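go over my protein:
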Amino acid sequence: AIETADYCDELVDNGKGGTEKRYTLNIVVDVKMDPKEIIKIIAQTCNMSILYANGKVVFKADKPRVPVMSINMYNIINRSFAIRKTSCSNSKINRILVQYQDKDNNYEREFAPKDDDVEQLIRGIVDRSINGYGTTRRSQALRQAQLFMNANKTLTTVCSFKIGLNLLFAEVMDNVYISHDITGWINEEFTILEVEEEEDELI
C-alpha cells in the first residue's frame, strides 16, 4: 500500500513547466454508496488494480515493472496453453475521451482527448468516453487518456495456462517472461491478470 501511495504522490510534469502529484482523487463519498463501487472508483482514477488477500483489499499500482520470473514449456502443463486476441484490428479505438471536473473552470465537466491520428485517417474516428471519477486536473485526465490509449494499442493478446502451484513465484499485476514453441515466443513480456487455484495444486 505504501509503494502504491508513493507512486501516486510522485511528482510528474504538469504540462505547464512545473510538476504535480501523479494522481489525486477528489470526491465526496456518499455513505449510501456500495463500498465496492468506492474501491473501483479509487482504482480507476489512480490506475490501480484491486487485489484481495487474506481478507483485505490491496491496491497495486499499474506501473512499469521488471519481470519477476520466466515461464516456458518446461513448467507449463501439457495441453493447457491457450491464446486469444482481445479485439479485432478493425474495431480499434482511436480516440479516448476522459471526462473530468475542471477545478480551473468552476468544476465544469470537460473532456481530455488522446487521438491516434494515423488510425483516424485510415478508419475515421472511433472513440470511447471514460469517466475520470474524482479527477479535477486536465493534466491528470490527459495522462489517464494516454494510458488507456497505450493499453488499447498494446494489450492485444491474452494467454492462459496451468502451472504447478510450487512453480509460480509471482502474483497478480506482476510481469513475467513467457516462451512457447507454438507461438514462437521467446521471453515475451506479459502481465498476470488473474490467478486461480485448483484442487490438484495447479493454478
Summary: The CA atoms of residues 196 and 203 lie 5 Å apart.
